[in-house]
Amino acid sequence: MGKQKYAWITAVPMCFVGVTTLTAGVLSIKDIFWPLTSKPGQVFTGYLDSVLMSIFILGVVLVVFDAVRRWIAVANGAPAPQEAFGPPLTAAGEVKMGCC
């Protein structure tokens, strides 16, 4: 679509937010949740919070990985995914919402 020159507007904030989120998640596990596992009565909470934060970190990594994979594919000539253009328009030019 000829908009590659604007990709940095999305990429720079995404990198900042991604690095900040991953760093906060790792530090939370290391400094907050994991030490709870050695305190009586907080063992389960420490392990549960560590596992949930690990799942969150994995989700962030997967989303970024898939976005980069799609960007590379489109940059190499693959068609942009249809969902990238929003919901289809009806004949009258209105956006079709819901089931009816």
Distance between the termini: 32 Å
Shape assignment:
elongated
Largest sheet: none
Name the beta content range: under 5%
Total number of distinct structural domains: 1
Helical content (DSSP H or I, runs of 4+): 55-70%
What structural class should be given to the helix and strand makeup?
mainly alpha
State mean pLDDT (0 to 100 scale): 86
Poorly predicted parts: none
What pattern of helices and strands is seen along the backbone? HH
Radius of gyration: 21 Å
How many individual helices?
2
Strand segment tally: 0
Question: Summary?
Answer:
With 100 residues, the chain is an all-alpha fold. It is built from two helices and no strands.
List the helices and strands and how they pair.
Layout: H1 7-36, H2 43-75
Polypeptide structure, described:
This protein is mainly α and 100 residues long. The chain has one domain (4-85). Helices cover 63% and strands 0% of the residues. The chain has two helices and no strands. It has helices at residues 7-36, 43-75. Helix 1 (7-36) packs antiparallel against helix 2. The relative contact order is 0.09. The mean pLDDT is 86.
